[in-house]
């Protein structure tokens, strides 16, 4: 039975570790959320480690500067794993092959150090997708014809960010997961490493164990996130507790005219994807 705690402090006696989503929970791509950052800082000071778990397609070390630039305090987290970290493990078997790389140049750290030759959909051996080339202007349909060529050739599509959309300021921006969905609809093969898939959770739990200095009791791990098909489903599939931040990416479907959560609407959001959360809150606060 899902409950609606007033803040993270109400759960402090039930969990030792927090695995927290980033975009939509502690920042929106333009600015950080001070109350959420303060809540995570308090948790880290009084309860246990906070491991950020992000579907960013870049390695975690390369995303830290972005968090700093958005004024996310280093005190808000002790560990950090990304979809990019998990994706790099998938690239190792592809060494020496030709790749159709789809995504902006800012994601270059994702493939740095691998022996790969750039190619197009007509002659590549596989696809590595970190996002749209110009996500402020393009939509997935702009890629249909090129993806059809690749799908017909049977190319594997490695998706470095399973998110379909993220909120950038007050806009929704398409991500690599939306291209992966289109590719699958064209008959293509897709593999993903980020949320809700197991690889990134294995990394996150291992990082939590390192920080704790002992094995993790999975019954005392709390996942926090705002994406139903990524954060909530990932926790659900991993049998981990989840605090659903309902005013995030799905906010307009979860709140009433007064700006307060509507419990029936929150339940409906989760039921639509056949997943459940242990707890739900509007915004992350202490």
Which helices and strands, and how do they pair?
Elements: E1 17-20, H1 34-46, E2 50-54, H2 60-69, E3 79-82, H3 83-91, E4 98-102, E5 117-118, E6 126-129, H4 144-152, E7 156-159, E8 165-168, E9 171-174, H5 176-185, E10 189-192, H6 198-212, E11 221-225, H7 228-238, E12 241-245, H8 251-254, H9 263-271, E13 279-281
Parallel strand pairs: 1-2, 1-11, 2-3, 4-5, 4-6, 6-7, 7-10, 11-12, 12-13
Antiparallel strand pairs: 8-9
Plain-language structure description:
With 286 residues, the protein is an alpha/beta fold. Helices cover 31% and strands 19% of the residues. The protein has 9 helices and 13 strands. The protein has helices spanning 34-46, 60-69, 83-91, 144-152, 176-185, 198-212, 228-238, 251-254, 263-271, and strands at residues 17-20, 50-54, 79-82, 98-102, 117-118, 126-129, 156-159, 165-168, 171-174, 189-192, 221-225, 241-245, 279-281. A 6-stranded parallel beta sheet has the order 3-2-1-11-12-13, with helices on both faces. α7 links the parallel β11 (221-225) and β12. It is globular, with a radius of gyration of 19 Å. The mean pLDDT is 94.
């Amino acid at each position: 039975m899902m409950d609606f705690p007033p803040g993270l402090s109400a759960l402090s006696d039930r969990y030792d570790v927090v695995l927290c989503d980033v975009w939509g929970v502690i920042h929106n791509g333009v600015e950080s959320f001070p109350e959420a950052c303060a809540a995570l800082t308090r948790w880290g000071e009084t309860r246990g480690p906070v491991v950020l778990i992000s579907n960013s397609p870049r390695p975690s070390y390369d995303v830290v500067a972005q968090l700093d630039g958005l004024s996310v305090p280093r005190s808000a987290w002790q560990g950090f794993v990304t979809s990019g970290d998990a994706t790099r493990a998938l690239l190792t078997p592809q060494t020496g092959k030709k790749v159709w790389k789809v995504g902006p140049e800012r994601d270059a750290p994702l493939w740095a150090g691998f022996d790969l030759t750039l190619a197009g959909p007509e002659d590549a051996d596989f696809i590595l997708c970190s996002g749209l080339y110009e996500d402020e202007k393009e939509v997935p349909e702009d890629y249909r014809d090129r993806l059809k060529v690749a799908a017909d050739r049977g190319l594997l599509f490695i998706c470095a960010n399973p998110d379909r959309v993220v909120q950038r300021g007050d806009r929704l921006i398409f991500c690599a997961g939306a291209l992966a969905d289109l590719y699958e609809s064209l008959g293509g093969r897709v593999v993903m490493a980020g949320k809700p898939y197991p690889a990134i959770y294995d990394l996150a739990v291992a990082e939590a164990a390192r920080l704790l200095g002992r094995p993790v009791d999975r019954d005392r791990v709390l996942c926090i996130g705002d994406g139903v098909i990524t954060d909530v489903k990932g926790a659900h599939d991993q049998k981990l507790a989840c605090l659903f931040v309902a005013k995030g990416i799905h906010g307009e479907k979860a709140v009433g005219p007064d700006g307060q959560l509507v419990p029936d609407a929150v339940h409906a959001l989760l039921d639509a994807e056949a997943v459940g959360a242990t707890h739900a809150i509007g915004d992350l606060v202490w």
